[in-house]
Amino acid sequence: MFRKGDGHLCTCCVSALASFRGTVPHGLPLEIGDTVQILERCEGNSCFCGLHSTSGIFPACYIHLKNAHIKNKGQFETVIPTEDSVITEMTSTLREWGAMWKQLYVKNEGDLFHRLWHVMNEVLDLRRQVLVGHLTQDRMRDVKQHITARLDWGNEQLGLDLVPRKEFAMVDPDEISVTELYSLMEHRHRKKDAPAPASTHHLFAQVKSLMSSNLGEDLDVFFTIYDGRENRPLSERFFVRLNKQGVPKSPEKTEKQCTLFVDLGSSDLRKDVYIVVHIIRIGRMGAGEKKNANSTQYRRPFGCALVSVADLLTADHKDDHLLKVYTCNTESEWYQIHENIIRKVNSRYNLSGSNAGLAVSLQLLHGDIEQIRREYMALFTRGIAITKKLGFSDIIMPGEMRNDLYVTLERGEFEKGGKSVARNVEVTVCVLDADGLVLKVKGSVWAGSGESGADEYHSIVLYHNNSPRWAEQIKLPLPVDKFRGSHMRFEFRHCSTKDKGEKKLFGFSFVPLMQEDGRTLPDGTHELIVHKCEENTSLQDCARYLKLPFSKGNLPGNNQAAKGSKESFWITSFLCSTKLTQNGDMLDLLKWRAHPEKISDSLSKLKEIDGSEIVKFLQDTLDTLFGILDESSQRYGLKVFDCLVHIINLLQDSKFQHFKPVMDTYIESHFAGALSYRDLIKVLKWYVDRIVDAEHQDHIQQVLKASEYIFKYIIQSRRLYALATGGQNEDEFRCCVRELFMSLRFFLSQESRVGSPIAQTQVVFLRTFPSVYSELLKIFAVREVASFVRETLGSLSAAARADCPLEPVKLQCIARTVESPLYTNPESRCILLPVVLHLLQAHLQEQRDLVMCSRILSSMFSLIKKEEVVSCEEVDVIVRSLLGVLLRTILEITNRPQPTGNGNAPRLQFQDVTGEFVACLLALLRQMTEKHYQQLLDSLSNKEDLRDFLLQIFTVFRILIRPEMFPKDWTVMRLVTNNVIITTVLYLSDALRKNFLNEKFDYKVWDSYFYLSVIFINQPCLQLEMFSPSKRKKILEKYGDMRVMMGCEIFSMWQNLGEKRRWVGRLRQVKGVANGSPESSSTACESPWPLPRSTRRVPSLPGICASSTRYLQYIFTYEVYISRINDIVRKSKV
């Protein structure tokens, strides 16, 4: 405590900035970093202070003042600086590592010495970043995560204790429940901090250069992700321009050389998924032609390269690849050169050159795009090109705006046109609006990401080919309002190889982007009509040709001339839009007021519409459904309800699950069906009433699966109605809800047989029922909702069979109930607790579903610990219901045979189940007060019950302090366990003295008590002398020396035995002789303490095995142990 001149006290501590030898009288030696508590400031430059148990003075200029608070005031008080707990942990850990690091050098462990040195420097650097305080919240979180990972690594390497953490900060075991502490320890032990396998992946690609002997022309390089199994591209194209030397045209703009292929699913990371590269040269028609007067540039095929995505899976950094470049033997095979390379059809392609290759850097990145933005911030700062997936990702996010029309120029069939040789056909693509003007919206036609779009696109030219196949993909990222009235035009020109190099127009095709009814161009392949045209002026007035037919698939029957034409042009279109639709049924539903006669058909067809189309127009679709319900509930009520159920269940799909918040927002902010609750309750009850008699339960199960959102709509509708009418018809609404729950209880009370449809329907309901609680709480009082839940769960059939699928689901429902806000409220918890305990007790007694039982118990005890005021009656009810069955469960599990052959197997078996139940038992015992113990002992009606209970709990305690109970580095958990054990033993000692002494003496109970006490004292985790000074200090500050406490109790109990001392242990000896039990084995009979030299020898007794004699010898040394304990107690007092 810092004492000022006026006597005012404030909490303060200091950190040593420099070492002080303390050579002056009463001087206190300091080392850099030592924390000292200020007791008094003296005149001048000295301070009178305390360091651990030492006091002294030192110059004030050697220290730095810090704010602090004192915890656990008294003999073992702790001064804790009020700074970030991660900083405090780093400081103490680095100080501890420093001493051990020096020992590594002494022991010649060079490898660990150097690795630890680098980690310590890294942690120090991270510490500086945190102390400066200039980090953003996201960056601070990443830094702290990195720090704790490094601290855990170092602790593991040095054999130090595992540190339980919550949100990167160390936890105080006294501030949380034992179950939560165990969960944190298990979490860190199994290294669950490592992220789960990501479901979304991204591919980084960077083009460096093209090495080839026959360069000399500019190049266009296109990358795409290609599915070799389905022979289709998975992504749009990434476009890079290279100069005549084969390097990027703008080397200083690195963002133009890089791209990120985003939103790849886990299913896309296969061996038959490839990164395909097509290289196009820009220059003369023939690669070997000499320069002449013709300066016209053509886009001509050059080569192709590819690499499998699976080859990148093992790399965690950017890998440089030199991709071999192949060329076609014949240009007519260019469209499928990548397929030929994949299938290794060697006769159709050749290696471009022995030294030719495309140098690229590739790396797979894992996680959602926001995570990638945080981890690779530099990429996005430079404006890296994002190359999107064709179609939506595996998970569609709400708010994602996308409106891309992809068009692939597939092939054409053209006549010679009076020429002796085939044409060199080039296709020019442009997009025009309703007025015939070229759209100029940031470039309406994109060859690929990486380069800006243009007003028009020119295809490659295949030499002398009247049936060219291009397979070139372009993208039209047009605004939604530009689709109506716009069309795409394809102009066909013959590229002459003569001196003039003319590009002569000979025809065109066109296709509207949107049909008259509002549907966009359908996905798929379209055969377009090639219209003759030889003058560019003929295309200036688009109104002249827009009246003509554009597709051979839509020609009227009397237009034989166009159908008989040999010339055709094929394209493939694919729309990826969050605003436009190609589905006529969806449009009919949304325009239901214009076509009321189609309402019934539209509602019936809704289930056939693709889910991505529904979520595009989710709010409009919901408005339509409730609009129809308000106007024609009698006629369409059932169909609207079924459509609503379909949409709700659609959002359960992993692809659309992120749209649940969109529906939640709709319900809270946009839903206006104030009268809908009546029809929704009515139809829902109609379905529930027919469950028992229905032969087919599939549709009813779908209805119950959607019950969470059905109740959300019911409750919100009722709230809107009450707001509009001032709460009218409240009694009618409550009556309807009660009747609905009566129907539910009747359906749940039906005895379910294995394999029966009704059993599966009960399972579906119980899985969704807990999600309804929060909605009911918006209208009903908490006690009313708790009564609904208690009566509903209480109506379940009591007949329990292990093979019934309903049994585990009951527990899952109870688990979610305990974890819900309804159970958190003390008012409702007292109503729900009996039904929860009843079901738990039934499962524990039969040893069924133990994992789920432990989860429920953990949640219950964690909640009790968090409550500031816990009802004594609540704890008492739990004790009476669960303490005995918990003890039996632990004994039952630990007595099961353990697998052999693996040294770690026994511990893992303990950890799988027993650890959770041990934590639950410890949490319950720690919550019990003297009053609870007294009530527990009073409830044991006779001496035999008390004897069984004491033997049972002493046996369990011996199990808890086994070395294999917890991993070696779980010292925190072991200390908490020992603290609970000694507290419980102190409470039970009185019962032992009162009921089993003198004429009531029971050898077995006393023997079990002393055996537990001795092995308790002998635990390695309590031998404080073996620990480092810092660890010993922490344990003493929090728990004291528990050996002394237990020793005092042994001494007291031993003195109470009097003449009975010589009989303690005799029962165990006789049992070993008669039954040859494991207790008499050499392992079981080993001395809990090392035998003192003064131990008296016990003569061999006839008929008694040597091991039992040895154990008896240890029993006779208790007085020697007591003498030692007396010494320890006496010294501790001194």
Automatic annotation (TrEMBL):
Residues 1073-1095 are annotated as: Disordered. It comes from the Eukaryota. Gene3D superfamilies: C2 domain, Dedicator of cytokinesis N-terminal subdomain, SH3 Domains. Belongs to the DOCK family. Keywords: Cytoplasm. It is found in: Cytoplasm. InterPro entries: C2_Dock-B (IPR037811), C2_DOCK-type_domain (IPR027007), C2_domain_sf (IPR035892), DOCK (IPR026791), DOCK_N (IPR032376), DOCK_N_sub1 (IPR042455), SH3-like_dom_sf (IPR036028), TPR_DOCK (IPR056372). GO terms for biological process: cell chemotaxis; small GTPase-mediated signal transduction. One of its GO terms (molecular function) is guanyl-nucleotide exchange factor activity. The lineage of its organism: Eukaryota, Metazoa, Chordata, Craniata, Vertebrata. It comes from Scleropages formosus. This is Dedicator of cytokinesis 4. Residues 402-576 form the C2 DOCK-type domain. The keyword Secreted does not apply. One of its GO terms (cellular component) is cytoplasm.
